[in-house]
UniProtKB/TrEMBL annotation:
Segments crossing the lipid bilayer: none
A Pfam family the protein falls into: OCD_Mu_crystall
InterPro entries, alphabetized: NAD(P)-bd_dom_sf, ODC_Mu_crystall, ODC_N
SUPFAM superfamilies: NAD(P)-binding Rossmann-fold domains (SSF51735)
Protein name (database record): Ornithine cyclodeaminase family protein
Taxonomic classification: Bacteria, Bacillati, Actinomycetota, Actinomycetes, Micromonosporales
Amino acid sequence: MIQLRFLSGPDVDGLGITHGEVIAAVEAVVDAHGRGRTVFEPRTHLVPDNGGAGHFNVLRGHVGTLGEHGVSGVKVVGDFVPNYQRGLPSELALMTLYDPTTGVPLVIMDATLITEVRTGAMTAVGAKYLARPDSRILGHVGARGTAFANVTMLDSLFPLEEIRVTSRRPESREAFAARLREVTSTPVRAVATADEAFDDADILVEASRLEEPTPLLRTSKVKRGAFVVPYGTVSAVELDLLDVMDKVVVDDWRESRSGRFGALRPHVDSGRLSQKTLYAEIGEIVSGRKPGRESPDERILFWHRGLSILDVALAHLILTRAEAADTGTMLRYR
């Protein structure tokens, strides 16, 4: 008989995984990627005939540094922007892990939390190596999904003096700001526009949920020494943004070139972002093969689309903790 563990959303939440643990796990797997200890394929998309309500992302990866023989995994995550109208998260995800030596499935888990925190952790890891350590002002566009982890994880790493947040709907940005004030002593200000959020900011994060391309992160708002993270599904930046950057870093170049979505998709398609103009993959920097920030005046952009290996690493962390706590439901597989 083969059994596998099922972990519901409440099961995962009850494990009390901390942001520090998430960041550490993500940094470790990025380092493994930089050293060639991971295997993955760029995400694929399934776009149903649903009138444009949303689509699915399918991510597959293997991390050789986890466990005795490594671990493999697959995540399917929906991206349905109008879900807030139904009281649902815009991103709902399911994750499975497998023994890479036998193919035996190990766990099925609600991966919604993984999707939310792994993106914020990747932003934080990128900032650790690429942002000015004395960064004081964070400007953040977007208030749902990954936004909370983005802001709170960055707040834990930098001596921030102000956090500015905005989103399309006033009630959304005000609620987001109120939620942040509950967990941080850093002043949080909800502003009406992206320009206000990004004005003179040291760290600029564009995590919008657009349906059509709209230039929210304007090139003129990027000051010397700024660290810029645009990763919305639909482009919200101007085409000349890369012209002012001293370094452009991605999570993985193959991932950057794949699919039809992504913040810098027009830049890749037009040739403005290519293997020649790219400075590095973040794994090269974390593993020490290339330097990160070398000058306080550098403008550095980090585009991460979301690597499947992050999901695998965090799912393995959750599974290990669940096994130790005997949490979840054991299901008969065959």
